[in-house]
C-alpha cells in the first residue's frame, strides 16, 4: 500500500500543470511515508528512491526537486557518532555519510552535479534575450535563475560536508569556470565566491592537495577590478590556507605569522591594494600589513632587511605612476596634446594607495616598539602647541598638593608619566609606580603611547 502511495505522490509531483507549492507538499508527504515506514527493508527502500532521483538528475530533467528529495531522504539517515570507526560497521545500520559515499561511488554524484551546473549555465548563456534581473529569469517555469544556482551549490556543499568527501580539481574547475569566469549575472560570481569561501573554512572541503594549484591557476587569474567583498573573502581564505600548507604561514596562538617572504599570491594582493575597488582596498592593505608585521622567529631577526624590501616594493609600484604623471604634465603644457584626465586620476590613486600601504606598515612597526624612541618619528619630531598640566598628588597620610607641569601636544602620556614620577621621587624616593587620572578616569598604561594632542585635553588640565 505504501509503495503505491509513494508512486502516486511521485507522479503527482511530476505533473507540469501542478503548482510548485502543491508539488512541494506531495514531496514532503513522500518523505514522511519513507520516514515512518515500518517495512523491514525501509533503508533499501529509501536508497531505491534516491537512485530514482539521481536518474532524474542524470537526464537533466526535474533537477531541483530531485536534489531536494535526495537531500531530504539522506537526512532520514542518522549521522555517525563522533567515535564511530569503520571497523565497527554494523551491516544493518546505515549512517548518512555512508549513504552519500555509496552514491558518490555508484553515480559520481559530485561530478554529475558539477556537470549539471555547467549545462544549466550554458543554457542561460545561449538565450537570445537576457533580462537584467536574474530573479526574473525562470527557465523551467518554477525556479528563478538565482534559485537554480544557489540550490545546486547548496546541494553540492551538503554532499561534501555530510558525506565527508573532498571536492577534487576537475569538479572545482568546472564550477569556477561556470560561475566566476563565465558568469552571466554578477550574482553568479558572487555565489561562486561565497561558496568557495565556505569550502575553505575551518573544516576545509576542497582537497588540500589541489588547493594550491587551484589558487594559482584560477583564483589569482580573476581581474582585481571584479573582486567584491565576497571575492576578497574568498581570496583571503585561499591565501592563508595555501600558504599555511606550504609552510609559509605558521599558526601561532590563534594567529598566523609569516615564515617565508615569498608568499603565494602576495603580488596579486599588492595589485588588489593598488587597483581594487574602494570597497575592498582597505581590507587588502590590512592583509598586507598583517602579513609583513606578524613575523616568525626566523624572519624577525632580519626585520631591517624586510623594511628595506617593503620600501623597495613601494618604490617599484610608485615609479610607473610617477612617470605617467610626468608625461601627462608635459602633454598638458604642450598645446598640441591634451592631457588624459582618467590616466592622471588612475596614476594619482595608485600613488596614494601605495603610500597608504607604506604608512600603515610603518605605523604598525612603530606601535610594536614598546620603548620610548631616541630618534622620534617624523610626526613627533617637533614641539606641538604648549599646554600646562595641573598635577594633583594624592598620598596616604599627606595633604593633596598641586603643581604645574609644562608639556606640549606632541608629547606622549608615557613621557608625562615619567616626568611626574621624577618630580614625586624628590619627595617620595621609594615611589616606583604612579596611577594617572583625568577627571576621575584612570589612564591605562596601554594608552601611554598616545600623544597628548590625541587625548583632547584642555589647555590647562
From TrEMBL:
One of its GO terms (biological process) is proteolysis. Residues 1-243 form the UBP34/UBP24/USP9X/USP9Y-like ARM repeat region domain. It comes from the Eukaryota. It holds the Pfam family ARM_UBP24_USP9X-Y. One of its GO terms (molecular function) is peptidase activity. Residues 384-459 form the UBP24/USP9X/USP9Y ubiquitin-like domain. The keyword Nucleus does not apply. InterPro entries: ARM_UBP34_24_USP9X_Y, UBP24/USP9X/USP9Y_UBL. Keywords: Hydrolase, Protease, Ubl conjugation pathway. This is Probable ubiquitin carboxyl-terminal hydrolase FAF-X. The lineage of its organism: Eukaryota, Metazoa, Cnidaria, Anthozoa, Octocorallia.
Amino acid at each position: 500500500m505504501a509503495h503505491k502511495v509513494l508512486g502516486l505522490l511521485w507522479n503527482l509531483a511530476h505533473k507540469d500543470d501542478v503548482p510548485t507549492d502543491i508539488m512541494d507538499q506531495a514531496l514532503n508527504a513522500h518523505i514522511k511515508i519513507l520516514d515512518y515506514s515500518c517495512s523491514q527493508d525501509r533503508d533499501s527502500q529509501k536508497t531505491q528512491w534516491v537512485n530514482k532521483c539521481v536518474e532524474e538528475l542524470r537526464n537533466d530533467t526535474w533537477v531541483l526537486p530531485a536534489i531536494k528529495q535526495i537531500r531530504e531522504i539522506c537526512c532520514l539517515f542518522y549521522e555517525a557518532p563522533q567515535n564511530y570507526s569503520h571497523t565497527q560497521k554494523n551491516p544493518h545500520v546505515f549512517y548518512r555519510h555512508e549513504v552519500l559515499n555509496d552514491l558518490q561511488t555508484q553515480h559520481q554524484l559530485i561530478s554529475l552535479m558539477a556537470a549539471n551546473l555547467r549545462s544549466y549555465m550554458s543554457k542561460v548563456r545561449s538565450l537570445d534575450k537576457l533580462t537584467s534581473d536574474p530573479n526574473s529569469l525562470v527557465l523551467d517555469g518554477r525556479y528563478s535563475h538565482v534559485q537554480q544556482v544557489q540550490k545546486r551549490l547548496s546541494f553540492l556543499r551538503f554532499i561534501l560536508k555530510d558525506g565527508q568527501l573532498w571536492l577534487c580539481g576537475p569538479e572545482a574547475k568546472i564550477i569556477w569556470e561556470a560561475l566566476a569566469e563565465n558568469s552571466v549575472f554578477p550574482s553568479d560570481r558572487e555565489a561562486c565566491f561565497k561558496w568557495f569561501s565556505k569550502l575553505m573554512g575551518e573544516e576545509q572541503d576542497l582537497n588540500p592537495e589541489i588547493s594550491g594549484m587551484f589558487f594559482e591557476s584560477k583564483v589569482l587569474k580573476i581581474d582585481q577590478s571584479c573582486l567584491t567583498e565576497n571575492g576578497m573573502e574568498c581570496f583571503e581564505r585561499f591565501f592563508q590556507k595555501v600558504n599555511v600548507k606550504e609552510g609559509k604561514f605558521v599558526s601561532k596562538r590563534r594567529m598566523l605569522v609569516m615564515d617565508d617572504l615569498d608568499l603565494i599570491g602576495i603580488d596579486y594582493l599588492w595589485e588588489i591594494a593598488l587597483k581594487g575597488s574602494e570597497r575592498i582596498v582597505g581590507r587588502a592593505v590590512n592583509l598586507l600589513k598583517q602579513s609583513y608585521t606578524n613575523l616568525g622567529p626566523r624572519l624577525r631577526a632580519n626585520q631591517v632587511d624586510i623594511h628595506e624590501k617593503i620600501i623597495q616594493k613601494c618604490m617599484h609600484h610608485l615609479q610607473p605612476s610617477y612617470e605617467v604623471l610626468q608625461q601627462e604634465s608635459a602633454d598638458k603644457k604642450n598645446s598640441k596634446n591634451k592631457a588624459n584626465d582618467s590616466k592622471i586620476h588612475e596614476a594619482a590613486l595608485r600613488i596614494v594607495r601605495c603610500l597608504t600601504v607604506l604608512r600603515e606598515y610603518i605605523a604598525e612597526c612603530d606601535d610594536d616598539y614598546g620603548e620610548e624612541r631616541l630618534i622620534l618619528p617624523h610626526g613627533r619630531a617637533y614641539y606641538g602647541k604648549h599646554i600646562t598640566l595641573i598635577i594633583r598628588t594624592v598620598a596616604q597620610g599627606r595633604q593633596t598638593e598641586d603643581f604645574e607641569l609644562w608639556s606640549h601636544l606632541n608629547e606622549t602620556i608615557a613621557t608625562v608619566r615619567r616626568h611626574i614620577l621624577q618630580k614625586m621621587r624628590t619627595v617620595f624616593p621609594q615611589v616606583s609606580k604612579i596611577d594617572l587620572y583625568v577627571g576621575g578616569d584612570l589612564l591605562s598604561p596601554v594608552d601611554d603611547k598616545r600623544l597628548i594632542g590625541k587625548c583632547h585635553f584642555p589647555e590647562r588640565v
